[in-house]
Structures are given as C-alpha cells and as structure tokens.
Amino acid sequence: MLFEDQPSTRRPHPLVTAIVRNGANANNDTVHAYVPPEPRSCTTGRVVLTDKGVSVVTSPHARQEIQVLNEAGSSNRTFAYSPNGDFLAVVLETNVTIYNARNLEAADNIINTIDYKGVIEVDFSPSGTYISTWARYVPKGANDAEQPRNMHVYKVVDGTLIASFSQKAQNNWKLQWVQSEALFARLSATEVHFHSPTAELSAGKNLPVAGRITGETLTSFSISPNKAGKMFAAVFSKEKNGIPGSVKLYDLEKAATASGPACVSTRTLFNADSVDFMWNNDGSSILVHTHTDVDKSNQSYYGKSTLHHLTTVGPHYTTQIIDLTNPVHSISWSPNSKEYIVLHGAMPSKCTLFTVNSADAAAPSKAIYEFPPAARNTVTYSPHGRLILTAGFGNLAGDFSVWDRADFKELCTVRAANASSAQWCPDGRHILTSTIYRRLKVDNGVRIFHHSGVLVATMDARELYGVDWRNDENGKWPMKRGLSAKPEGIQDAEAIKRATVQPTAGKYVPPHLRGKTGAAAVSSITKAREAQLKPQGPIGVIAPLTAAAPQKPTLVGQPPAEDKVLSKAALKNLKKRENKKKADGDETPSRPATSSTPAAPVVPAFIPVDADSKMIEIEKKVKTLQKKLKQISDIKKKKDAGETLELTQIQKMEGEAALLKEMAELNLQLSA
C-alpha cells in the first residue's frame, strides 16, 4: 500500500493523479489518485487503472477499492484537472470521460462522456465550464473543399459542441481564455482570433470572430490574469527581412470590437527566434524569455537567451533587460507577484532573487539576493511563497534543496535519484518528484517528500506516463505563520533505499586488510600512495631539482649495465674523441666534474656513441646478414629440387658472395 494509515481530523487532502502502465500491453494502464499525507499523519487515497478497470481509495482510514472510473480493458492516453479542481478528464481511445474530482468514490461520479475517437489532449477553461479537445490532424484529399476539424470545444456539463476548428500543430493548440470566460483566443496563421463561446455556431462553419490581432510574422501570444482589474495580451512577432522582432502589449478592453485591442507598449527584440511568456499572478508584470537557435558569439551550442521585464502599469509601461549569465535555465514568479527567481549560467548555476517595483520607470526589477551556486536547472515557489525549491533534473543527478524565503535558510538537500520533475502540493508542505517513462525507461515511479526532506510516500511503476496534483483554487490551505513539524516518515527500508542515492562500489581492499574496520583499511591503503604524492620537507618549500646523470640507451629487457673498467679498444676510442674536441676548440671534459652545488638538469642534444653501443650495432647487422644468408640457402634447395625461380630469387643468390664478405669483416670487429 502506498501510505501508512493513521487517524486524522484535518480537512480532506488534494489528490495527486498519475497514469501508469503496469505491463507491456497498453490495456494495463493505471490511473492512480493519491492523497498526500498530513504532517505527523499519513492518510491514503488513490485511483488505480489496471486491465480490470480503475479503482479508487479516498478514505483516510479504510482501504476499500471501488471500480468507478472506466470500463475494464480500456487504454488511457492522458488526463487533466480543471483549474479549480472540480473535474477530472480521462482520455480513452474511444471517448473522453469527465468525473467529479471532489467525489471520486461516489457511484454517480461521471459528469459527462464525450464520444469522440482519437483524442490526444484535453484542456479546461478557467472555471471548468468548457473543455477543449485536440486529435491528430488527418488531411483530406486535394479535391475536398473543406479540411477536417480536429479541435473541438464542449460544455462540460451536457457535452454541447460550442466550436470546431482545424488545427494542424500540436504545440500551440490550447485555447487561451479571459478570466471571466466571456472570450477565448486562438492562433490562426499569423493572427490572434477572439471568439465568444456564447455565439451561435452555424452548421459547417467556424465560430464567428469577435476581434483579432494581426501581424505579418506573429507566432505566439499570451493572455494575462485578470486580478489587477485589466487584462492584456502579449504578442510576439519574429524578425523578417531585416526588420527586428518585437513583443507588443495589447489592452483587451476592446478585444471584441471591430477595431480590435489597442497596442499600449512595444519592445523591440533582436536575434529572437522564439519566446516564453511568464505572467505574475495579478497581471501587472510579464517576463519574456527569448531564445535564438544559433549563438553568433560561439559561446554555446544551444543558442542564446535573454530575459526582458515588461510592466502593464501605465502610463509608461516600463521595459527592462535583465542582466544575466547565459543560459537561462528556469524562472519562477512568487505567488505575491512582487518578486521572482532566475536560475542562470553554466553549471554550477547561479540563482538570483529579484524584487519588482512596477512604479519605478527606470528599473522595475532589482536583484536583492544570490543563492549559493549549485547543479540546479529548476526553481519554483511553494503555493504560499514561503518556501523555494531548487532542483537539478534531466542530465543532472536529481538533487533538490528547499529554502525558507523568510531568512534564506536551507531546510534540506535531498537526492531524488533519476527524477524528471518536481511539483509542490497545494498545501505548500509536500513535494512530489516523479520519473516519467518518456524521460527514462527504468525506475519509473513517484516519491513524495516533506519540505524538511523526509520521504513520506513512494509508488513504483513499470511505465509512468503522467502525474499531477488536484488543483486547489478555493484557498483550503491558507498560509500559516510557522513551518509544519518534521514528520516521522515511512519505515520501509526498501523504499528509502530506492529514493536515496545508491552507494557506489568501494575501493579494492587487499586480503590482509579486509578484517580491519573501514577507516583503518582505507587509511592503510592510501598511506603509501599519499607518501609518494606528498612533497618532502616543510609545507610550502619546494625541494631543488638535482642534476641527473645521463642514462645510456639500452635494449628493452636488457639489464642495466654496471660500471666497469673500459677495454683497451674503448680507451683508445675515447682518447681519439677527446683529442678531436680539443682540436675543434671544445675544452669540455668528457666526464662532468663533481660539485657540491646541485646543477640544473641538462638534457644533451645527442647521446654520444661509446664502444658498448657500437658493439650492439655490429651484432644487429650480423643478425640481419644471417637472416639473408638463410633465405639464400632455402632458395638453393628449391633450385636443386628443380623448381622454377623468380628473378628476385636469382638476384639474391648472386649477392651471396658480398654478404659472406661483409659477415667476415663484422666477425673480425667483434673479435678485436
């Protein structure tokens, strides 16, 4: 079982839902819905989708399982919660089933079923009134006047079709709604179209366009939240034919009129191929993260990124370029909309906290704190803004740290091995890490940690496709003055082992040291090596280099020559060399004089040839001649046997006399 059950008198918990494949067959998909544990309490609740159907456990004290979510044998593709947490949509091969997410254990928990095959993604409107679906675009024949409509908008309660569109691309298919749900917008070619969901839908036609934003190179847009009294749309246009790109802010007060929204601010962007928009909660500021495919300075293989801060507080609508180090890994707004954090720079990356003052026309953003550098590429605030999570996923090890924003104290650093994502629980006290199948084919599963670093729950899966908390927009988890106490955590040793760093294999220990303790064994093994590496003498004093006598060249495997008295021939040759040096003006003695003062090592430009080395060369020549004479002897035998000889073989036989003469001369030199 996922959690240890303990009594709890607290409010119901938000659910976390996941799609899991427990076997190789797609019909073994499982949807799990879990209830996160309270501090000092571990309640249980989950939804499990297997080949027998979907079972739900939501009671804090019981473990009964009820088949409620879908028919047995069906395959799940994805799921989505509504922003307010009221509805859960599960996408099957043949339909989309919408459930009452706040009462999943009820027998009549199905709100509606949309019978449409091939749906791949779904999305809800802000209040959960409407749901939009997207299926793969399959073009019709060239002679067909109308292309297929693969994107639909329905009412959640009764399934009424509101609108249908043709949408080829999957990356920008989602609709963007105003907060009141009076309008929604979608990108159509290089225009942003605004539609009213209450407009009448004519058969075979698209929903009427209530307003539009046009641009020759418009590629993306984003609508702000409506908590500051006004709503804006940020629109990005790419660079084209020498005309720089730009980000424009439009006031949506007149979005549904013939004139369309009014542009209130423009920020020119150079070298921007794409952008990411990030609004704060009240819609007073937006961060524009620009990307380029190629870094012209040749400092990165992955292009260049820039961060711009734009404000929607008139009349100046300030814009500012944030000074950061490339690349920008992650950005997170605080829930209070007054500050944000940026992870940037090469690993170990920098983590900078900025405060926002929209009234400051010169610099609305100001850096106020720098966290210690670490291998992190993800940062996010807790739902209340009290805690900050920095993590390293993807090609990093999976470490994450939790910081207290009140005093910038590090609460914990934990290793979530192989994790690919992390999410805060709506209660602001727990963190969910997961390993998804599309990121890693092994070690799939979910880990839930308390903000103190204690592991409180685990769930392993053969294939995990998605995981998400149920949204909580009703404020059921208000901010508290103090942090929750450290829970007891799970007692399963195997779960703890899987969720922590696996110990690496130790160093090789010789048999005579294996009986000793770990510290003593390691110390004994490394003492000799440390003695070799440690410089002799006091720390900080470098011993002077001493002159090394030049070594005579030797053959591989030959024992080193010992000092001995030179033969008469060697002495005679040595005397001749010294006389020749004197005649040439070189007075350097043949042997260096001894001195008590260490001299710098001298590497000779050449190694003088002495008698021993000369004898070695003669012996090499003798061996070579012996091989050639042996070949000639073999050729003679072939000739005597009546075989036909080649021209090269005949030439070798003719040179036998010269080889014998050279061999006799070499033997005389060796015997001298």
Automatic annotation (TrEMBL):
InterPro entries: TIF2A (IPR011387), TIF_beta_prop-like (IPR013979), WD40/YVTN_repeat-like_dom_sf (IPR015943), WD40_repeat_dom_sf (IPR036322)
One Pfam short name: eIF2A
Gene Ontology molecular functions: mRNA binding; ribosome binding; translation initiation factor activity; tRNA binding
Gene3D superfamilies, per the entry: YVTN repeat-like/Quinoprotein amine dehydrogenase
Annotated region described as Disordered, given as residue ranges: 572-600
Transmembrane annotation, as ranges: none
Signal sequence bounds: none
Keyword terms of this UniProt record: Initiation factor, Protein biosynthesis, Repeat, Translation regulation, WD repeat
GO BP field: regulation of translation
GO cellular component, one term: cytosolic small ribosomal subunit
Domain Translation initiation factor beta propellor-like: 267-467
Physiological role: Functions in the early steps of protein synthesis of a small number of specific mRNAs. Acts by directing the binding of methionyl-tRNAi to 40S ribosomal subunits. In contrast to the eIF-2 complex, it binds methionyl-tRNAi to 40S subunits in a codon-dependent manner, whereas the eIF-2 complex binds methionyl-tRNAi to 40S subunits in a GTP-dependent manner.
Family in the record: Belongs to the WD repeat EIF2A family.
Protein name from the UniProt record: Eukaryotic translation initiation factor 2A
Species of the source: Chytriomyces confervae
